[in-house]
Amino acid sequence: MNQKKEEILLHNRFDGKVILITGAGSGLGQAAALQVAKEGANLSLVDLNADSLEETKSKVLDVAQNAEVLLITANVADESAVNNYVNATVEKFGKIDGFFNNAGIEGKQNPTEVFGIEEFQKVVNVNLNGVFYGMKHVLKVMREQGSGSIVNTASVGGIRGVGNQSGYAASKHGVVGLTRNSGIEYGQYGISINAIAPGAIMTPMVEGSLKQIDPDNWEEVGKQFVEPNPMKRFGKPEEVGYLVAFLLSDQSSFINATVIPIDGGQSYKY
């Protein structure tokens, strides 16, 4: 398919739709925001960092000048803050058609026996509790609407082990369980709930992870990290954005309660 035909196929896929995205200030959240905005969506963008949100908004308006963009600074690990960002979105737009439940952190890297309790709880509070809170409050809105699509960010670390990252792996396995369980519960209401499981995608969080291993030679560590990958490279945030946009669109309406790896095939190699 040539580029012109592809643009016609995807053009206006989100016209009139409202998409809520957490962790929207950078990485996968920002990439997804740009993709759905190009296709006509209005956006409610949530992040802990207000400056990062402003950066994402500026980029969105560069590619979609007519998009309405609501910015909300919130900590997804705080249920009251989650309730507030959901209410603010509904107050502004009247509905939530799609929810990219994406905010997350990696945490420090240590073997399980020395992994700090506070660090473990911090990672779980953001990655698992934050996803649960988001689903809990957005699902109320979508059930009343009788429609909606939720995409949770899990990880290949949620479908197999990740050495020295007990908190991250445990939290992402939890996201997988929540996704499958809730998809089964809410399919009857016209709501699809799925998760993506990114592998090595070059985002600020992955860069930070590599720098934990070797701050001075992290790029070389990155090359070694992707060597086992069948595609021999890092994924790009926009490649994940394409998948998220598809799962949030009506074109994926019969995909539910599943987890889709986007990792260049690495999780299937072993």
UniProtKB/TrEMBL annotation:
It holds the Pfam family adh_short_C2. Its EC number is 1.1.1.47. One of its GO terms (molecular function) is glucose 1-dehydrogenase [NAD(P)+] activity. InterPro entries: KR_dom, NAD(P)-bd_dom_sf, SDR_fam. It comes from the Bacteria. Keywords: NAD, Oxidoreductase. SMART domains: PKS_KR (SM00822). It is an enzyme of class 1 (oxidoreductase). Residues 17-221 form the Ketoreductase domain. Belongs to the short-chain dehydrogenases/reductases (SDR) family. This is Glucose 1-dehydrogenase.
